[in-house]
Every structure is written in C-alpha cells, then in structure tokens.
Amino acid sequence: MKIHNLGLIFASISIFLSQNVLAETVKEQLQKQGYQFVKQIDAPQGLTGWAGYKDEYPSTVFISNDQKYYIVGDLFDKSNVNLTEKAINDHVKTAVLDEVWSSLEKSKWIQDGDPKAPKVVYVFSDPNCPYCHTFWKQARPWVDSGKVQLRHIMVGVIRPSSKAQAATLLSAKNPEEVFKLYNLSEGKNKVKEMQNIPKNLSDQLDENAKLMDKYGFYATPGIVWKNADGEVQSQQGAPKDIAKLLN
C-alpha cells in the first residue's frame, strides 16, 4: 500500500503561531493534539525538525528554537529534492501502516476461514456487490486449506438497502455461516433489510464506510493484506491474479 495513494501526504505548507508557550513546549502542544513524533530530522538553521503523523496522515514538523512558531509541510533543498518525502518513507511509513492495520483489526467484520490461518486479508464488502461474491469464490481454495483467513469489513455503499442488509448479516447468530450461504448463492438469496438498526451497529457500519473512504477505496471489494515481507498492500476490485495476492 503506497501512502500517497491513501491521500496521507500533506500537499501544502501551513504556518501556525503557537500559543501558551510559557506553559508548555510546542512539541507538547502538538502531542496533546494527537501528533505522533517518530524521528528527529535535519532542519534549517533555527528550527528543529521532526517526522511524524496525526490521524495516519504523515508530515514533517519544524519547530522554531524560540518556541514561538512551527511549520507543518514539505521541505525542499536547493536542488529541489523533497526532503519531507524521504523522511516520511524512511521513518514514518512503517508506523503509519502499522496503525492502518490496527484500525482494520478494530473495525466490524465477519470472519471467513480459520482464525488461526497465518495470512490475514481484510475485504471491504457490500452485500450487493457481485465482485465481492467473485472474490469470495476465487479465494475458496486458500481459505478451505487453512492458509488464509478473510475478514469481511461490511459496508453499505452500493444501494440504499445495503446498510440494512449488512446490519442483518453482522447481527446474525452465526454471521460466518449466514455469510457463507449468501455467497454460495452468489447473492441471489437476498438478505433481509434490518428495520431500526441499533445505534451502536449503525455507528459501526458508518465507521467501516469512513475507513473505506479514508484508505482510498471508491468501490468494493477493497482488499488489504500483507505480503511476504510484511508490507501492507492494497487492491481495488477482485484481482486478476488471486494466487499472487493470497500465496
């Protein structure tokens, strides 16, 4: 997964006047606002530079040594080399992608396959998505062998009925079995729409949709996994070479 494809790199420079500098440092203020400092980096004279991120959006921050100002944005050298991009790739990318993976783990999903299977694949899935059924069918040899587990992050984005159907699937007594039977029918056995979705379940589905949008998926299935080197990868739509993804 390339961070720039997820919209995680700041494109502009903003300069902010820090406040309450007598009570705390600029760095402490930024930390309270949720900024995660990962690595101190080289900076122009009079500034201290850091590479880090906030809400999974990486950036570089340059704090004036007099603690009056800070700059968030890209730093270039005289040869027009983007030093911020290098700092993010060298120091922040792994931390951000670890947080992305953690966010997926905490989302509301349906287990598909052995929970102990070594390879985990997250799939943003809509009940009315025919390509989701295609991917589910394609993945059977790997799932049935116990090598791969799919975690279907349910969303309701295709039709007005999708959210209510996703709620029905998630609230079933045995979501895994109901989801399996639904996919075996290739979606022909329509899932009933839940009436009056409980607020907590509705909120969970909304959060799933926000994650899908945040990570740059505009349609389902949106697939996220780790390759053999442990690097997070992503795929929009059912893959043409599923073996490459699941092996």
UniProtKB/TrEMBL annotation:
InterPro entries: DiS-bond_Isoase_DsbC/G, DiS-bond_isomerase_DsbC/G_N_sf, Thiol:disulfide_interchange, Thioredoxin-like_fold, Thioredoxin-like_sf. Residues 1-23 form the signal peptide. It is found in: Periplasm. One of its GO terms (cellular component) is periplasmic space. CDD domains: DsbA_DsbC_DsbG (cd03020). Pfam families: Thioredoxin_2 (PF13098). Keywords: Periplasm, Redox-active center, Signal. Residues 118-238 form the Thioredoxin-like fold domain. NCBIfam families: PRK11657.1. Required for disulfide bond formation in some periplasmic proteins. Acts by transferring its disulfide bond to other proteins and is reduced in the process. Belongs to the thioredoxin family. DsbC subfamily. This is Thiol:disulfide interchange protein. It comes from Acinetobacter gerneri DSM 14967 = CIP 107464 = MTCC 9824.
